[in-house]
Amino acid sequence: MFINKCFTRLLLITAFLVAGASAQAQVSALTDSQRSDAVYTCTTCHGSDGRGNPVIRAPGLDGRESWYIRRQLENFRAGVRGTQKSYTPGLEMHAAASVLDDEAIDRILNAIEDWRPIARHEGIDGDTARGQQLYNSCATCHGLDGQGIEAVGAPSLAGRSDWYLMNQLRLFKSGYRGTHPDDPAGEQMRAMMQNLDVDGTLQDVVAYIRTMDVTESE
């Protein structure tokens, strides 16, 4: 199974390298069967219940807002995300999304709606008291309880895996996310990240976020 997943991921990278300008032609040529296959492709890395896979850095999609997933898929499809050749997970997502049409994205979102939030028993080390103080600036957009605020384009943070949160914060900090002019929400996050150091304060913030309750769990 692991070999099959690795092979699939290699195919996605290859698709990105050879597709190039023909991506839009592929989108318009999607068949109904291919749109259904797109849903299955997501489960290859993110799991049949959306719990994700830290080994291959595939985040959990369970309980994730459909509006946020749509925005990220559209960003990957348009090359707003996932075009840095030194970051493999981004390349894979860009390759996978570049051949999706709007109806395929709709089908993916419909399938993901059934993935309820899964309780995660993780425990990243950090000073949660300090993290709570630092999180106050995050709460303006993401909410005091980490449930997110759609009106400002800020997704929920509660219930997300600690490794995923740390990874995304580092990507914003380093410029792998939030530097494209067509990603205003990402640019805002990158600006916020400049006030946090990578090794200390980030871990404290994530440790505090991990104390937040998930609305639903199983």
How many discrete domains?
A: 2
Write the CATH architecture name of the largest domain: Orthogonal Bundle
CATH superfamily of the largest domain: Cytochrome c-like domain
- Assign a percent range to the helix content: 55-70%
What is the element string, with H for helices and E for strands?
HHHHHHHHHH
Number of strands: 0
Instruction: State the CATH class of the largest domain.
Output: Mainly Alpha
The DSSP helix count reads: 10
Strand content: under 5%
The CATH topology label of the largest domain is Cytochrome Bc1 Complex, Chain D, domain 2
Mean pLDDT: 83
Keywords: Electron transport, Heme, Iron, Metal-binding, Transport
Pfam family, one: Cytochrom_C
GO molecular function: electron transfer activity; heme binding; metal ion binding
Domain Cytochrome c: 19-116, 126-213
Describe this structure in words.
The protein has helices at 2-19, 23-28, 32-46, 66-78, 88-97, 102-112, 128-142, 162-174, 184-193, 201-209. By secondary structure, it is an all-alpha fold. It folds into two domains: 32-112, Cytochrome Bc1 Complex, Chain D, domain 2 (Orthogonal Bundle); 128-210, Cytochrome Bc1 Complex, Chain D, domain 2 (Orthogonal Bundle). The chain is globular and about 50 Å long.
